[in-house]
Design brief:
The chain is of the alpha/beta class. The protein has helices spanning about 95, 125-135, 150-160, 190-200, 215-225, 230-240, 270-275, 300-305, 320-325, 325-345, and strands at about 1-10, 25-30, 50-55, 55-65, 70-75, 100-105, 140-145, 165-170, 240-245, 250, 280-285, 310-315. It has one domain: 3-Layer(aba) Sandwich (Rossmann fold). About 30% of the residues lie in helices and about 20% in strands. An eight-stranded mixed beta sheet has the order 3-4-6-5-7-8-11-12, with helices on both faces. A two-stranded antiparallel ribbon has the order 1-2. The protein has a two-stranded antiparallel ribbon with strand order 9-10. A hairpin with a 2-residue loop joins β9 (about 240-245) and β10. α2 packs across α3 (about 150-160) and α5 (about 215-225) packs across α6 (about 230-240).
């Protein structure tokens, strides 16, 4: 007998999702057992959308898969949204019996924006991730990250190694966030002036947003990624990344995310020392034509090889959004890695030699 569970979400008066108000309803379907293979595809990717309260509004999230399955947090790339994982998830959820929570980073998709006059610190996504994990009360889970989302997931796995069992990084170069590549002092004065000019111009207000036709919005998304994003993938991101306004569409992401950061960064040596704290199983998938294909990441790979429970790197033919363009091929690497990690279980007994 196969038990399928569906979470019926009840909302608080302020529309925030509450775990304590969730009602779990179950229906039993009598079906013969079948073995799952790497080609198993979930036919219907039905997600339950909910909100996680924040002092400035909420973080929007979508729940996929079996609530009793292995928990996975999915973290998208810069200015993307939950839709980034829509093509891939059907190919990995059922195979590994996963319970995936995919989040829209603050300022993206359906999530709230930061208040006017505030700014997005470089490492703000880490706070988003921690807030979500605390809300879900997950003690042991895995992370699936793409691009910048994968970058911050590396940090999370280093800061909280006792809770992360497995981490899968899709096309990200780890030590990109270092002062060698992004010198703090060179443009800081002009960056401050840019931010103040932006605030004075009112460019961040909703009434000043540019209105696009759907075709223009798609082309704008593709152009912004130097056409690494295909038209099909752009249409997927538009579902959560745009909303109707005055006969056209506007992008839902916060324009403040385009502002330069004011955060000083650590050195590569400091970064590698921090990455030595990562203890979980790590799979890095790099795209041959991706954004970071020319970077030398041997130092990071060596550190991970020495300190992680297991480490594997894969280089695939494809562009930066390969998880959207060729999800079946990407899943063929993810599924066996997840399977092995889930069989091994939590790694809490390995991480306290920090």
């Amino acid at each position: 007998m196969r038990l399928l569970c569906r979470i019926t979400t009840q909302f608080l008066k302020n529309n925030f999702y509450s775990k304590r108000q969730s009602v779990l309803t179950c229906s039993s379907l009598f079906a013969p057992k079948r073995l799952l293979t790497t080609s198993t595809v979930l036919k219907d990717l039905n997600g339950n959308e909910f909100r996680i309260p924040t002092p400035y509004g909420h973080i929007a999230a979508v729940e996929y898969g079996d609530p009793n399955g292995h928990p996975v947090l999915a973290v998208h790339g810069w200015k993307d949204n939950v839709g980034s994982f829509e093509p891939l998830l059907p190919h990995i959820i059922e195979h590994n019996n996963l319970h995936v929570i995919a989040i829209d980073e603050t300022g993206c998709g359906h999530s709230s924006h930061m208040p006017r006059g505030s700014q997005y610190p470089m490492f703000a996504p880490l706070k988003d991730m921690r807030r979500v994990i605390n809300f879900l009360e997950w003690k042991n889970f895995s992370i699936l990250g793409h691009s910048r989302g994968a970058g911050f997931s590396f940090y999370y796995a280093a800061f909280f190694p006792e809770s992360v069992q497995c981490f899968i990084s899709i096309d990200f170069f780890g030590s990109y966030f270092t002062k060698e590549l992004c010198p703090f002092y060179k443009q800081e004065a002009s960056n401050i002036d840019k931010i103040l000019k932006f605030e004075q111009s009112g460019n961040g207000s909703s009434e000043n947003r540019r209105i696009y036709t759907e075709e223009e919005a798609i082309k704008s998304l593709m152009k912004a990624t130097d056409f690494a994003l295909t038209e099909k993938s752009a249409q997927i991101l538009m579902k959560r990344g745009t909303k109707p306004q005055n006969g056209g569409v506007v992008f839902t992401r916060d324009s403040k995310q385009n502002l330069p950061y004011l955060d000083p960064l650590h050195s590569k040596v400091e970064y590698l020392e921090l990455m030595s704290k990562v203890k979980c199983d790590v799979l890095i998938i790099m795209a041959s034509k991706g954004m970071f294909s020319t970077y030398d990441n041997k130092d990071l790979f060596n550190v991970l090889q020495q300190n992680c429970r297991s480490f594997k790197q894969v280089r695939m033919e494809g562009d930066h959004f390969l998880h959207m363009d060729i999800p079946e091929q990407v899943a063929s690497h993810i599924n066996p890695f997840f399977e092995q990690s889930i069989q091994k279980g939590a790694i809490t007994n390995l991480v306290f030699a920090l």
